[in-house]
């Protein structure tokens, strides 16, 4: 077994990334405090060809030194938009036909592994503040709440980690509906 070189990995160039068909998934960051978490979400979004990120409220925006530290340039490949108010952003997404999914612990939820994406639909995954989670008014706009099962004592994950888990599961399902990338 050997580690693969960067050339062997055959990563897309920035130009190829921009032209590649994206997964019909948007990520909405609802008042995420840490620029490091924001940068990590950018990097995950790049890895899975996510269509766009919406940065809302106090969420840092590029260029920001903490974002740059963890994004490693993905803030230049993944499309992003800023909205001062998360509620305005989710209403805008709804008006454009996106299905709103909050990643949150709520009384009414769907376990992440039980959620099934449907071909031809666009999904917006909302990730909340590190302490407060997704704002209650934003939750009320959502079509569904997803939860990651947890078994330890804390019952909470870092927002970038939980986002990565959820993005992976949604991207895994959505990839079945896209043609394979050209290399």
Description:
The protein has a single domain, classed as SPOUT methyltransferase, trefoil knot domain (Alpha/beta knot, 3-Layer(aba) Sandwich), CATH 3.40.1280.10. It has a seven-stranded parallel beta sheet with strand order 3-2-1-6-4-7-5, with helices on both faces. The relative contact order is 0.19. With 183 residues, it is α/β, with parallel strands linked by helices. Helix content is 33%, strand content 21%. The longest helix has 16 residues, at 159-174. Helix 3 links the parallel strand 1 (23-30) and strand 2 (50-56). The two termini are 24 Å apart. The chain is globular and about 45 Å long. The mean pLDDT is 95. The protein is built from seven helices and seven strands; from the N terminus they run H-H-E-H-E-H-E-H-E-E-E-H-E-H.
List its salient traits.
single chain, 183 residues, alpha/beta, Alpha/beta knot, seven-stranded parallel sheet, 7 helices, 7 strands, 33% helix, globular
- List unreliable stretches of 5+ residues: none
Largest sheet: 7 strands, parallel
Shape: globular
Cα-atom radius of gyration: 16 Å
Query: Which strand order do you get reading across the main beta sheet?
Result: 3-2-1-6-4-7-5
* Secondary structure tally: strands: 7
Taken together, the total number of domains comes to: 1
- Strand content is 15-25%
Content-based structural category? alpha/beta
CATH architecture: 3-Layer(aba) Sandwich
Query: Mean of residue pLDDT?
Result: 95
CATH superfamily: SPOUT methyltransferase, trefoil knot domain
| Distance between the first and last residues' Cα | 24 Å
Classify the fold: give the CATH topology. Alpha/beta knot
The CATH class: Alpha Beta
Order of helices and strands: HHEHEHEHEEEHEH
Helix content: 25-40%
